[in-house]
Amino acid sequence: MKGLVFTVEISLTATALALLAGLPVALLRMSKFKPVSWLAFVYIQVFRSMSLYIYVLWIFFGVSIVTGLHVGAFASAVAALVLLNSAYMAEIYRASIQAVDVGQIEAATSLGMGRVATMVNVVLPQAVRIAIPTLMNNFTDMIKDSSIVAYIGAADLMYNTEQLVSYYSRPFEFYTAAAVIYFVVVFVLARSATALEKRLHRHVAAA
Q: Which of 21, 71, 77, 125 is the least buried, fewest Cβ under 10 Å from its Cβ?
C-alpha cells in the first residue's frame, strides 16, 4: 500500500505538470506561423515516439553523466512521464479545441472579442469539457505506465512488490496481489471516466 501511495503521487504530479505543458504545445501546434507550428509538431512526434523506459533511464543516469547533477528517482519518474504525456495531452487539447463549434468563435468575433479573449472565454472552457473524459483515460494509462519507474529504484507499487518477492520468495502471491491492486485502481478510474463522460454529454445535450 505504501508503494501504491507513491505510484499515485507520481501519477498525480506528472498529470498536473503534463496538463500544464500540453496546452501551450497544442496552441503552438495550431499556430498559423509555420516555424512555430512545425516545432510543436516535432516536439509531439519526438516525445510520443520513444519508450517511457528510455526516458526514465536517460534522465536518471544520462543527466547526471552529462551535467554532473544527480536527479532523484521521484523527479526522474515525473520528468519522464511528463515528457511522454505532455505530447499526448497536446494532441488531446488540439482535437478538443478543434471540436468546438466554429459558429461560437464567429459569434464571439462578431461581438468584438479578440482572439485571446475568444480563446480564453469561449473556446477553452468548452474544449476542456470535451477533453476531460480522454484526459481521465490518459491518467489511467499513466498509473499503469508508472510501474516502469521500479527500474530506477523508485519505491512505487511494483518496486515494493519486487522487494517482497525477493525477500519471501513468493512471486505468485505478491505479483497477483499487485495485479489485483492495479486492476482495482484502473477499474475505478475507468468507471469514473465513463460516468463523467455520460454526465458531460447530458449537460451538452441540455445546453
A: 125
The amino acid present at 205, given as its one-letter code, is A
pLDDT in tens, 21-60: 999 999 999 988 899 999 999 999 998 888 888 888 888 8
Place of cell 512545425: 38
**Residue 109 within a domain:** no
Residue 99 lies in a domain: no
CATH number for position 187: 1.10.3720.10
| Number of domains present in the structure of the chain | 1
- What is the biggest distance separating any 2 CA atoms in the chain, rounded to whole angstroms? 70
Q: What is the pTM of this model?
A: 0.82
Structural domain span for residue 193: 2-94+115-206
Residues 6+ apart with CB under 8 A from 35: none
Evaluate whether residue 105 is within a structural domain: no
